[in-house]
UniProtKB/TrEMBL annotation:
Assigned keywords, A-Z: Ribonucleoprotein, Ribosomal protein, RNA-binding, rRNA-binding
HAMAP family: Ribosomal_bL9
Gene this chain is encoded by: rplI
Gene Ontology MF, one: structural constituent of ribosome
Gene3D superfamilies, A to Z: Ribosomal protein L9, C-terminal domain, Ribosomal protein L9, N-terminal domain
UniProt-listed Pfam families: Ribosomal_L9_C (PF03948), Ribosomal_L9_N (PF01281)
Name of the protein described by the UniProt record: Large ribosomal subunit protein bL9
Matches recorded under InterPro entries: Ribosomal_bL9, Ribosomal_bL9/RNase_H1_N, Ribosomal_bL9_bac/chp, Ribosomal_bL9_C, Ribosomal_bL9_C_sf, Ribosomal_bL9_N, Ribosomal_bL9_N_sf
Purpose: Binds to the 23S rRNA.
GO cellular component, one term: ribosome
Ribosomal protein L9 domain sequence ranges: 13-40
GO biological-process terms attached to the record: translation
Family: Belongs to the bacterial ribosomal protein bL9 family.
Length: 150
């Protein structure tokens, strides 16, 4: 059975790929779940248009990510003041959401907290830390964050 994938299917392909599968797999798994459509001339034309739109969107996103990286690098070091106890130990910890808020308040671009790669799950000490912000699969920015006592 010849099908066109509409979603990512593990070990089979990406959206827009034309694949040949066994009838039972296509009829009982892929088609009912909406992971694929039957390959017809009209469907192939529609998929080709979707593929072109996705490629242009990806190029546009890459340009936007490059601009965001330049903005983040221009900011330099971001300082986050926190309450500390005796010995410089933090009350609580600094999470990715706190870093995103600090980036935004420093005049940086809006960043999704899920794209912030922390050295560990949370920062629990005062000092300088290097954080990587994934802006696009091909673009990431390194950011210096300084945690200081308030």
């Amino acid at each position: 059975m010849k099908l066109i994938l509409t979603a990512e299917v593990e070990h089979l392909g990406a959206p827009g790929d034309s694949v040949e599968v066994k009838d039972g797999y296509g009829r009982n798994y892929l088609l009912p779940r909406g992971l694929a459509i039957r390959a017809t001339r009209g469907a192939e034309k529609q998929v080709e248009e979707l593929r072109k739109a996705r490629e242009s969107r990806a190029a546009r996103d890459l340009d936007t990510a490059e601009e965001a990286k330049a903005t983040l690098e221009k900011i330099g070091t971001i300082t986050i003041p926190v309450r500390t106890g005796a010995g410089g130990k933090l009350f609580g910890s600094i999470a990715a959401a706190d870093v995103v808020t600090a980036i935004k308040s420093a005049g940086g671009p809006t960043v999704d907290r899920r794209n912030v790669e922390m050295p560990s799950a949370h920062i629990k000490s005062v000092g300088k830390h290097v954080i990587v912000v994934g802006l696009h699969p091909k673009v990431s920015a390194r950011l210096n964050v300084s945690i200081v006592p308030a």
